[in-house]
């Protein structure tokens, strides 16, 4: 369900409430851990829906540091690719958590550009098991994405895929201040 859609230049940005494994975009962004070998939450849902070939490809990557991201195929998912971003574990906010979370969004957009991708959907990285405060995370997600759009001119559509109405409201509050309705 689309909650809000805004246009900034040639790019459409949307807040939707959905299960990210159902979205037919060029890439969905997973909230992974540093092993890249799967886990619970959205990571577990993506691995279940993609099938075992996904974890087989992830094993070849040798993990990923916090704040960075890696791209794989999407296998049985409707999405062509999965971008596995490793968000920070929240530990009070003074250990570089905001910078690391921001870096996840920027790195995902860089990977889209490097692979010529047009559409991507972000999960709300770090806001579940990793306990990043959802309001602060939504601000970082939207602000970083908008700031980084110039580094990813291949991208024409960005979805902030929220799993709850509350998460969607937090993203909507920030995104509504930008661009024009579409
Ligand atoms: N579609 C969209 N969003 C979802 C879905 C889904 N199917 N399922 C959950 N979410 P989390 P984290 C939302 O805990 O905090 C894993 O075990 C959820 O409501 O999945 O970055 C990894 O392996 C929340 O808003 O990721 C890591 O070990 C958001 O996704 C660890 O959890 C992120 O919650 C990463 O923790």
Automatic annotation (TrEMBL):
Residues 1-179 form the Macro domain. It comes from the Bacteria. Pfam families: Macro. PANTHER family: GANGLIOSIDE INDUCED DIFFERENTIATION ASSOCIATED PROTEIN 2-RELATED, MACRO DOMAIN-CONTAINING PROTEIN. This is O-acetyl-ADP-ribose deacetylase. It comes from Bradyrhizobium campsiandrae.
């Amino acid at each position: 369900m689309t909650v809000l859609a805004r246009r900034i230049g040639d790019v459409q940005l949307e807040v939707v409430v959905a299960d990210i494994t159902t979205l037919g975009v060029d890439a969905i962004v997973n909230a992974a851990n540093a092993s890249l070998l799967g886990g619970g939450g959205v990571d577990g849902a993506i691995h279940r829906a993609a099938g075992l070939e996904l974890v087989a490809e992830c094993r070849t990557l040798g993990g990923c540091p916090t704040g960075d991201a890696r791209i794989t195929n999407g296998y049985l998912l409707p999405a062509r690719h999965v971008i596995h971003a490793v968000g920070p574990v929240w530990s009070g906010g003074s250990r570089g958590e905001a910078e690391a979370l921001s870096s996840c969004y920027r790195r995902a957009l860089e990977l889209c550009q490097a692979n010529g991708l047009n559409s991507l959907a972000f999960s709300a990285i770090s806001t579940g098991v990793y306990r990043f405060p959802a309001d602060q995370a939504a601000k970082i997600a939207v602000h970083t994405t908008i700031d980084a759009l110039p580094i990813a001119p291949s991208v024409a559509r960005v979805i902030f895929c929220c799993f709850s109405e509350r998460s969607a409201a937090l993203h909507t509050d920030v995104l509504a201040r930008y661009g024009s309705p579409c």
